[in-house]
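Give me C-alpha cells for this 263-residue protein.
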Amino acid sequence: MSVLPEPTAAPEREPVISIRGLQKSFGALSVLRDVDLEVRTEENLVVLGRSGSGKSVLIKIMVGLLQADAGEVVILGQSLVGLQRRPLDALRRRIGFSFQSSALYDSMSVGENLAFPLRMNMTDLRASEVNDRVRESLDEVGLVDSIGKMPSELSGGQRKRVGIARTLILRPEIMLYDEPTAGLDPVTSAEINELIRKVQTDYNTAAIIITHDLSCARATGDRVAMLLEGRVYRSGTFDEVFDTRDPLVTGFYDYNFIRESTP
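Here you go.
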C-alpha cells in the first residue's frame, strides 16, 4: 500500500514593498508616525483613511516625490534611502502611478498620451511597435476606439481608464493608485474597481490603492490597512478590519453609507 506524501504549504510570496518606521512631518504637523506596511508579489493592498490621514503623503514618498523624515522604504529590493537620481528613475520605470486627476496632457490625443512614455523611455522601439503597444494598452481598458480623441472629449471614467492604460504601457511590476474612484458615479466606480482587479490578474502586478472609498476597498483589496492620525490603526482583510465595535472604525464605515442592514 503506497503512502501519499504529506501536502506541502504554498510558498509565501516575496515582499515587493516593505515600509518600516516611516515618519513624515510638515513643521509641527505630524502626518506619518512609525508606519509599517508590506505588500507581497501580486497582492493588492488598500491603504484606507479619511482626508488628512497621510495616505497621499505615503504614496508620494514611495515614488520619491517627498523625502521621509525617518524610516525606510524598500521597493523591489531597493531602499529609497539615499538613492541617487539615476537609479531612482530606473526604479520609477518599474512602478505605475495612476494619479487621482489622471494627469493626461490636454494638448495631446489619447494615442499621443500613451505613446509619450514609450518614446521617452524606450527609444529603440519602431513607430509600428509604439502604435501596436498603444492600441494594445487601450484595448486592455476597453477604449481602443478613443485613440484619436482629445482628453476633453472623454468622460471622467474614460479619463481614469486612459490614465491607467498609459501607466500599463511600460509594463510595471507595481501599480500605485491614488483615489482611483474619486469623483465618479457608483456605476463607473464599479467599472474602475473591476479594471484594477483585471490589471492585477492580467499583468501579475502588486498594488497599493489609496482610497477613502470603502466600496473600492472591498472590491479591490486582498488586504486593507486603515490609517488613523498617521498610524496604521487596523490591518487585515476587509472583514477583519471592520469586524469591531470600535467607534473610530464603525464611524468611518457608517460615513461611507455601505453598512448592510440587519434584521
